[in-house]
Amino acid sequence: MGENDRLVTIFTKEYGILKAYASGVKSIKSKRASGCSLLTYSSFTIKRKGENYRITEAEPISSFFTMGMDVEVLSLCQYFCELSLVFVERMIPNEEFLRLILNSLHFITKENKYPPLIKAITEFRIAVISGYRPDLLACEGCGKFEDDIIFFDMQNGSLICKDCAESFDGLTALDRTSLTALRHIAFSEFSKLYSFTIPEKSAVTLSKITEKYLTLQTDYRFSTLDFYHSIINY
Ligand SMILES: [Zn+2]
Prior knowledge:
This protein has a domain of 63 residues: CATH 2.40.50.140. It is built from six helices and eight strands, in the order ββββαααββββααα. Helix 1 runs parallel beside helix 3. The radius of gyration is 20 Å and the shape is elongated. The site of zinc ion (ZN) has 7 residues, from loops.
């Protein structure tokens, strides 16, 4: 690669994650530069030669990146990208995942939704669509549907009520707000996924729960998440 070239990682609708060379895009004179830049939703023309892909055209449609962007928002955008890299396979389409990431980027950068809430929605919906769907219908022991506090057994992905909780270790308490929000994220139609609000304090609590669930279930350490925690103080 030349010094103005770049290997671009693209999350595509048709081919999942794809890596393609873009020549000359680090030069400000390049017509493809803005379409190939970070956090940009673009239309690409890509040529394949053997195992290599080369971007011949890149037309930006919408950019989620702005100069002077809030560092918390930027770090979460990068976390969403890392989640895509980890969960989406190369050359295998995953339209539902792409739609989720695009919407999360949109709501966090353009609608200024509270970052911990968008983080929680993204993490938990990813768990649900990637094969880590917990059973949130009712207490596993007795079938109780709701209570002021119900416990979440994150290891087994199940709910346990207060009366049945005695013989369990390491349970996470869920108040009514958290449980309702988790159920909404897991079960709602995509078009309604982002259309709920909870107090900021509850969103922070929810985000801790969804993060713990996703990292525990997948046993994966996300470097962008470590960075996020190094800059936030809640
Ligand atoms: Zn029970």
